Hints:
Elements: E1 2-10, H1 23-38, E2 44-50, E3 53-60, H2 67-86, E4 111-118, E5 123-131, H3 139-147, H4 154-157, E6 165-171, E7 176-181, H5 186-193, E8 199-206, E9 212-216, H6 221-225, E10 235-240, H7 247-251, E11 259-262, E12 268-271, E13 273-274, E14 290-299, E15 302-308, H8 316-330, H9 350-356
Parallel strand pairs: 13-14
Antiparallel strand pairs: 1-3, 1-4, 2-3, 5-10, 5-14, 6-7, 6-8, 8-9, 9-10, 11-12, 14-15
Helix pairs in contact: 1-2
Bound molecules: fructose -6-phosphate and magnesium ion (2 copies).
Amino acid sequence: xxxxxxxxxxxxxxxxxxxxxxxxxxxxxxxxxxxxxxxxxxxxxxxxxxxxxxxxxxxxxxxxxxxxxxxxxxxxxxxxxxxxxxxxxxxxxxxxxxxxxxxxxxxxxxxxxxxxxxxxxxxxxxxxxxxxxxxxxxxxxxxxxxxxxxxxxxxxxxxxxxxxxxxxxxxxxxxxxxxxxxxxxxxxxxxxxxxxxxxxxxxxxxxxxxxxxxxxxxxxxxxxxxxxxxxxxxxxxxxxxxxxxxxxxxxxxxxxxxxxxxxxxxxxxxxxxxxxxxxxxxxxxxxxxxxxxxxxxxxxxxxxxxxxxxxxxxxxxxxxxxxxxxxxxxxxxxxxxxxxxxxxxxxxxxxxxxxxxxxxxxxx
Length: 364
Ligand code: F6R
Ligand code: MG
Ligand code: MG
């Protein structure tokens, strides 16, 4: 059976500040998607959150980029924005960058990851959701999962994975894409993946079957809006087991936190800390950035789950490591490399400061 899995997310208001989501907002989203399920338009749905980001996880048979599915998400975000406004939540409607829906939520503020798949005998799915970071945050874990044999032993010893995976990489600034084959092109590929503020892995495919293995949201809010409106807080869908990496191989990159951009005012580097959903409430210096993982089995499109994958003491050391990294970075205060380089910062006072100092700079 062909099923489309759509994950569409937006920050439509934070509680308290930018740290979490209000239950009434989640309830409003539930109400909207329940109606769509009842009418038969959706097969199933799950509403959740990561920090202040509202996540709509939907299954249906309308394919990717479907106007009606996107409109449903857009209308749900609008209804939730009304609730957020009534509660005077912080930044109510902040990711709704357009006044009117124009056929697809891409480029309008929300983040989108979708895949249409032939549901396998057992279809294991992990949905990663992050807060206080940008869309390139998945480059490192996707590389580890699908190209690094020190992470995924299946690449070495599982006959159905030994062929490797191909990576579709997007240049989010120049709006172009390129496909790399792993393992033979990893050195070329890493030239790009190592620069996640510009190049982001959009999708990964199994090289023998051609089946899609992963897809991420690559929308960059700052580029869409041309001004700071919050970080992208991206999502990523990964299929697991069988011809794809095992659940444990998919989660393993998060056992050692990597450094991403985001955190306070979207203008800092910080560790991506794996947490259970209930702990995705970035508080310290509005962070550190969080990642949650919701696991599902699909059954004829029904979302069986979620299992909160990072709700496991096996990730306690990762959390401790993230906190130690956070302490170390925080000690730098306003200095790089904690603070992002001038051109990458989402907030800046540079123009005002330069204007004020005009005439005081002298040639040396
Ligand atoms: C980062 C983030 C927060 C805000 C900060 C200031 O992605 O959302 O760190 O940038 O709390 O928020 P405003 O400008 O809304 O008061
Ligand atoms: Mg926010
Ligand atoms: Mg957010």
